[in-house]
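Batch job 17 of 40 flagged for manual review because the log was empty.
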Amino acid sequence: MSTRGTYAKGRARREEILGSVVRVLRRTGYAGASVRGLAREIGVDAPRLLYYFESRERLIEAVLHEWTSRRAGAGPFDERVGVAPVLETWPRALREDQDMRGLVHLYIAFAAEAADPSHPSHAYFAARFDRLRARIVAAVTDGQREGTLRADLVADDVATDLIALSDGLNLQWLIDSTVDPATRLQAAIDALRS
């Protein structure tokens, strides 16, 4: 078999494994995020899982990337849509996330774990927040220029506040299912309008 064929086969197997892991973590959340437990759950051995993902941290990063990039509706991290729609799509993405409690739990817990600068995924989350912040800043700046968002807003502050609100609301929802993150985030975004 050619190297190219072997590479394509390995990549397909990696994607297949990732899809299985996403399905498991969607159900189990952060509590099910051990390499050994995931490997057992999807029917592979732990060394095989690590062959494709290097470490537990890289595996979880891949799961988070897969989750955010495969949403039915474009979310705030979706680079395929323009900057302006980020404020419109974000509440919808939070609403869709309510069907994926385990992945929301995984994200919140893993982000908190990665806050430690020595954590292997610290740089991943720093870059993720930088990208999202830049998208929000651009959306706010565009909205101000078009006159749809208030002129008194400080775009950097809005970005920081909306990210904190979104993640904080998701944490509250994990603890108290009567909290509605999508509605609360939408209300905050609506308050930005002129």
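Reviewer: the log was empty due to a logging misconfiguration, but the result itself is present. The domain at 71-194 is CATH 1.10.357.10 (Tetracycline Repressor; domain 2). Unflagging and moving on to job 18.
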